[in-house]
Amino acid sequence: MGDLEQFDDPVLAYDRLSQTYRELARRREPYLIAVEREILERVPAASKSLLDIGAGNGSRASRIASQAGISRIVLVEPSEKMIGQTSNGAETWRTRAEALGARSSDEKFDVITCLWNVLGHIRGTAHRTKALGAAHSLLSDRGKLFLDVTHRYNVRSYGLVPTALRLLHDFLVRREENGDVVACWNIGESRIGTYGHVFAHREIMHLALTCGLKVEERVVIDYENGQVRRNAFQGNLLYVLRRRL
């Protein structure tokens, strides 16, 4: 395997990944299909609009909207090269998730998605709070926000011993940076890396509370095969969030 090509800015990393994004998605197809399935089972009845934060090439939002009978789609995607691959004519807001609150819009969305650990590519709790707070402000009163994050204590992905050591470290040393990692993708003979963050359940609960959201449901999905699991240690975490009314 070739040397690691490191990007400090995740948006630049996704610019670099844009040409192989479909192949990356194909590798994780069972998991991604499962996430979409679980979302479609929970989309509020008569939903008319969908906002996808960190939308990539727009294909995911298009599939969800089509199957849910949603007519309006807005894609939030800061990577110019990823936006260049969209083919469904959806409206695109080229902005970072953490800067979404600065955008002037009175529109409310019935469904908001922020998937495949997009929140984990936002550096620092303050900026992650801004992103989730902006999503809260754009969510309709009866709408749902679907947030999918990489679980810091996923034994299935990391193994028993590394996960146990991570748990012990987090218990002894409580710091914001505990979940910071280098996110890496293998692309042919090369590797691309950038900033990433993996989450504990308590971290998401705190973020939701801070941003005026409540966790309606948490679904654990096996990252390898897409099966829904009962134990949080067996997968990544899909949250169904609603506004606190």
What's the helix and strand layout?
Elements: E1 4-7, H1 10-17, H2 21-27, H3 29-40, E2 49-53, H4 59-68, E3 72-76, H5 80-83, E4 91-93, E5 109-114, H6 125-138, E6 139-149, H7 155-158, H8 160-172, E7 180-187, E8 190-197, H9 201-210, E9 213-221, E10 228-229, E11 236-243
Parallel strand pairs: 1-8, 2-3, 2-5, 3-4, 5-6
Antiparallel strand pairs: 6-11, 7-8, 9-10, 9-11
Number-wise, the strands total 11
* H/E element order: EHHHEHEHEEHEHHEEHEEE
Residue-averaged pLDDT: 94
Sequence stretches where pLDDT stays below 50 over 5 or more residues = none
Please report which band the strand proportion falls in: under 5%, 5-15%, 15-25%, 25-35%, 35-45% or over 45%: 25-35%
User: How many structural domains does the protein architecture include?
Assistant: 1
Percent in helix: 25-40%
CATH class: Alpha Beta
- Structure classification: alpha/beta
**Within the largest sheet, what's the order of strands?**
4-3-2-5-6-11-9-10
CATH architecture: 3-Layer(aba) Sandwich
Tell me the major beta sheet. 8 strands, mixed
Number of helices: 9
CATH superfamily: Vaccinia Virus protein VP39
CATH topology: Rossmann fold
| Alpha-carbon distance between the two ends | 51 Å
Gross geometry: globular
Subunit organisation of the chains: single chain
